[in-house]
Structure formats: C-alpha cells, structure tokens
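Structure record:
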Amino acid sequence: MPEEDILDLNACDVQLSLRGSSALAPNGKPPIVSLRCPACRHHGAFYSPRGISDLTWEQLPASKEEANGRSRKTQIGIRLCPNPDCLSLVFVVFRDGKLDRSYPAEVLDFDHSDIPGHIAATLQEAITCHAAHCYKAAAFMVRRALEELCEERGVQGKSLQGRLKALETQVTLPKDLLDAVATMKLLGQNAAYVRAKDYNVVEKEEVELAIELTKDLLRNVYQYVGLVARLIAFSQNGAGAGAEQRPQPAEAN
C-alpha cells in the first residue's frame, strides 16, 4: 500500500489504513449475512445490493505490545432483506472477518399473542435491551416481567423463586422448567435491589437463556391455555356444524 494511503490520527493515537475496495467472499462478492430482519422479522440471507461494495480499513496498534502487535481489520457495508415484500436495508459491521454488529439491531423472536399487554411490553423491552448489548438492563427487565407475571396471577411467596413455584397450583408447569429457573442467579434470588451486585457481570448468553426461560413460562401460563380453549371451542362448533349438515335417515312408511 502506498505511504499516502496511511492516515496518522494523532488525536486518537491510532493509525487507520483506509482502503476503498471491499473484502470479498470467495465468490468475488461482499459476504452474505444470515439475519432475522428487524423490520419484517423473517430470517434470511442478506446480501449486498448490486454495485455497492463494503468499505474496509485496518487499525494499527499504537505499540508493539498492544494486541500483540497485530492490526485489527474492520469492514462495514449495507445488506438487503431478501423478503420481496420488505427489502429493508441493514448496516453491518465486521471485525476481523466476523459479523460484530448490525443496525437496526437483530432482535430475538417473541410471540405476544394471549399474553397480558403490560407483561409482553416488559419482556419486549428486555429483548430490545439485549439487542442493543445492554445486558444488565435486559436482566432487570426480564426479572420485572416475571414479577409482573406473579402479580397478575395473584401468587404469593417470599421470593421470586417461591412465587414462580406457586404457579404450579394454577397451571401445569414442567418441573424441569422450574428447576432451570432456580439455577439462574438473575431469576432465583430475592428482590433485585437486594442483590444488585449479581448484575455487575452479566453476559450475553446468560441474558438470552433468561429470556428464553421467561418466554417458555409465559407460553405455558397463557398461550397453551388459550390454544387449548380455542381447540375445544373449534371442536364443539365443528361437531355442531357437522351434526346440522348430516343427512337425517328417511322415515319408514
């Protein structure tokens, strides 16, 4: 690379080597990214629009000791949702060849149906915090969603874990599911403000597990019950309709 292509940013104490060409996949095109679209929520292979290349640059370490003297490569670009009814654009960032961020952020899937609005909104806020890499905030909102679940169902207990256990008296919950909740320090302790130090180190995987457990609890408490009720209603209505349409036997002369 010519010397004039290297910019010395003294204010930031870094060097950036800017290149106008993109880092290409083996097929000669910017790499395809597998994402859930933040707009239409469909999962698909996001590709770069025709004729638009990614921009890549290399950040050189300030010293040989920093990062073992290795440079860090960054690549940015835009990708297009493959859903023909959506075609939304997503901004992507790669670090050393791996997808690091996407904007708008990819969010976990969540079915709100049959869940009380305030509980669904709280868990959705936790999912939004997770997508923004705000894992402490996400953990607090997951716990709040569970507190709201217990309050809505009117269960009592000295701790959140005890109240969740009391849900067994109202609905059938898999024992393994409740045992899994008890193992999560973010869900099984007493009030969040008492054990706030447990949130000092919260990792992405831990929050994702807590969100998935909460979704399963809500599914068992609200959605399965609603599904069974609809199936029973459909069966009864269908049986009645079938009886009306069934031809009556002819009367004997």
User: Anything to note?
Assistant: The chain is about 40% helix and 20% strand. Helices lie at 117-131, 135-153, 160-166, 175-183, 185-188, 204-245. Confidence is low (pLDDT under 50) at residues 1-22, 190-194.
